Request: fold
Amino acid sequence: MHWTVLLSFAWMYLVFFDLALTLIAIPFVFLLLVVHELGHVVSLRRRRIAVTGVALFGIHGETSYNEYAAKPGDVVAVAWAGVAAQVVLMLAALAATSLIPFAAIPHGAAVASVMFVVLVKFNVFLMIVALLPIGPFDGHDAWQVIPRARAALKRRRQAKPRPAPPAAAPDPVDNLSPEARAALDRDSEKAAAELMAKLRGKSGADAGGEKP
Reply:
């Protein structure tokens, strides 16, 4: 844990302007930072990627891992896992403040108020900071999901099979019986012979008309 985590505790005093409420808020702030990094760790464990270290800073943490064993899709999923864990914690806090009768517990109203501020409002602020697409924040890798989704959609469109060209119409001659085909061949030969005879006769007539 880096010393800058103490700045988060100082910010809580600037939020509540009360030392008692700040002391109540400190465990919730620490819980929020830990849950965010725990989301990264769980995602890495599910993908069987070795975790090499976890560090907490002022308003964010850092989970280091074996980047050589991680695929591009793993990097994106791990980046989103921290924010996903924060969402789960926020929903749990909302359910707790709605279902648990804090008013009947001594100092319960103060605890419920601080828990709502830290685990809901401050939680949303940290989500926005975590998803900034700059520097060491998760958004630097998380928003790679958009170009990856576009590339996957493009590959899917290119992989669609093209429609096959229309089949050629069958030749009517192929459906004739052998007798009909033989008769057709004879008629074709006869027509060709008659045409040749006419052409020869015409050529002879033209030659006779040219005598001096």
